[in-house]
Write a structure and sequence with these properties.
By secondary structure, this protein is of the alpha/beta class. It has four domains: about 20-150, 3-Layer(aba) Sandwich (Rossmann fold); about 180-330, P-loop containing nucleotide triphosphate hydrolases (Rossmann fold); about 335-420, Orthogonal Bundle (Helicase, Ruva Protein, domain 3), CATH 1.10.8.60; about 430-475. The protein has 18 helices and 17 strands. A five-stranded parallel beta sheet has the order 2-1-3-4-5, with helices on both faces. A five-stranded parallel beta sheet has the order 9-10-13-8-14. A three-stranded mixed beta sheet has the order 16-15-17. Helix 1 (about 25-40) links the parallel strand 1 (about 20) and strand 2. Helix 2 packs parallel to helix 3.
Length: about 500
């Protein structure tokens, strides 16, 4: 698979060997199974949602017979396709699910995609469409497979990283991967500091528009009387103070992505004008008697309750539906507490480089256990941004090698006792343990075969061999191979 810009995905050919076809119509089920079998896949069949869930659980997660892709009919007797999808992902969230739906029944398919399905295909299924969709699903599955070995991470073109390991964040990463293949309008919802702009940039840099501009606009920071000019531009003399012609953000973003942050702050009058541009794909600068066609992808974001605003008339319902084609809900940090140690390690590494703590005598190596517990117990109204600021502050005030309770704001640890045990979480030791576990897990999965491990685990061969020597790992312990990882 070619490495998609912006995503930390291994460059290797992708296959989805074990496929489950679920449909209560026997002819459709067997026809799909035959087509998939001719494509080289091992195919399982199920006639109901209950049978599908049972089969997925039977085959396990790490066994050679584990199911990696499910083609799932959305309308069946017994439990619905949506419920089967939820139960399958509860068992293994990395399984890629394609929805099979009758022509014209797109609403259920879209609902399934919001629940985590990769895509949908309409009946009657054409073999060429099936091959194309299964191939793209294989790429999506490869991304999910990688996140099982590593802390999931999006790496943007400018080096910025977006990290998450919870099931909710894995689902977000999968949606970002899927959105890179289409031009769908996106609405990102979440509290301040959850990373909405990072998600928008990840979608842009993972799409064919990546070579074109990414333009971010904070709708709440522009005076109301200037919003139209900022969006669409104006001609010289169009209004008092317009001393020269100005290009608007829609023209700056031509061919690329326009990120409208704090979209809920737009006035109703401006919402009408934005809706017209989304519908007609053209606009007129202020004072101009011409229309300009536009090719811009819109990604909007808000921290406000748009459903309530629509109900109260503060936000136009028709604009909401235009923006909400593919919503992304970012969870607050308090719902991702298990990720705090991972995020702390990431920020420690980041600020060691940023603040010149690359010399051994000045570097921060980890965090004391009672300080980490304080971070776990805090509510985090400012979310990831607030946590990052707290760790950066610790770099400024901490004189030792470890972040202590005294180097983080007292408001964060009012419930902590300064005399708590000071068990150390050492960054370097934790990193080495992770590398050792990662390599052992990967080699075990691929029977000790070095080349397969390199292809699927996203680690350069020289690096893998060097780390194996460092940790004394012998691939022959994991399968019928010699100490060089070659077949015996």
């Amino acid at each position: 698979m070619s490495n998609r810009p912006g995503l930390n995905v291994s460059a290797a050919s992708v296959s989805v060997p074990n496929v489950l076809v679920v449909d209560d119509e026997r002819d459709i089920r067997e026809s799909l199974a035959q087509a998939l079998g001719s494509m080289g896949h091992t195919v399982f069949q199920a006639a109901s949602g209950e049978e599908a869930v049972s089969l997925v659980r039977e085959q396990g997660v790490d066994s050679p017979r584990a199911i990696r892709l499910v083609l799932l009919d959305v309308s069946m007797p017994g439990i619905s396709g949506l419920e089967a999808l939820r139960q399958i992902h509860d068992f293994d969230p990395t399984i890629t699910v394609l929805i099979i739906t009758a022509h014209g029944n797109i609403r259920d398919a879209v609902e399934a995609m919001r629940e985590g399905a990769y895509n949908y295909i309409e009946k009657p299924v054409q073999e060429r469409d099936l091959q194309d969709l299964v191939g793209r699903a294989g790429e999506a599955h490869a991304l999910m497979e990688e996140t099982r070995f590593t802390a999931p991470k999006l790496v943007l073109d400018d080096g910025e990283e977006f990290i998450g390991s919870s099931q909710k964040m894995r689902a977000v990463f999968q949606v970002i991967q899927r959105l890179g293949e289409v031009n769908t309008t996106v609405l990102i919802r979440g509290e301040n500091g959850t990373g909405k702009e990072l998600v928008a940039r990840a979608i842009h840099f993972n799409s064919p528009r990546k070579t074109k501009p990414f333009v971010a606009v904070n709708c709440g920071a522009i005076p109301e009387n200037l919003v139209e000019s900022e969006f669409f531009g104006h001609e010289k003399g169009a209004f008092t103070g317009a001393s020269q012609r100005q290009i608007g953000k829609f023209q700056y973003a031509e061919g690329g992505t326009l990120f409208l942050d704090e979209i809920a702050e737009l006035s109703l009058a401006m919402q009408v004008k934005l809706l017209r541009v989304l519908q007609e794909r053209k606009f007129s600068p202020i004072g101009a008697n011409r229309e300009i066609r536009t090719d811009v992808r819109i990604i909007a974001a808000t921290n406000r309750d748009l459903d309530r605003m629509v109900a109260s008339g503060e936000f136009r319902q028709d604009l909401f539906y235009r923006l909400n084609v593919m919503p992304i809900q970012l969870p607050p940090l308090r719902d991702r507490v298990e990720e705090i140690p991972l995020l702390v390690e990431h920020f420690i590494e980041k600020f060691n480089g940023l603040h010149g703590r690359d010399r051994e005598e000045r570097e921060i190596r980890g965090i004391r256990e009672n300080a980490l517990n304080a971070l776990r117990n805090y509510v985090w109204p400012g979310n990831i941004r607030e946590l990052e600021n707290v760790i950066e502050r610790a770099f400024v005030v901490e004189n030792g090698h470890y972040i202590t309770l005294s180097s983080i704001p007292e408001t964060l640890w009012s419930g902590e006792i300064a005399g708590d045990p000071v068990t150390v979480i050492d960054f370097h030791n934790q990193k080495e343990q992770f590398e050792r576990d990662f390599i052992t897990h990967a080699l075990k999965r691929f029977g000790g075969r070095i080349n397969q491990t390199v292809a699927h685990a996203g680690i350069p061969k020289n690096t893998l061999l060097r780390k194996m020597r460092k940790y004394g790992i012998n691939p022959a312990e994991f399968g019928p191979v010699d100490q060089n990882g070659e077949e015996r």
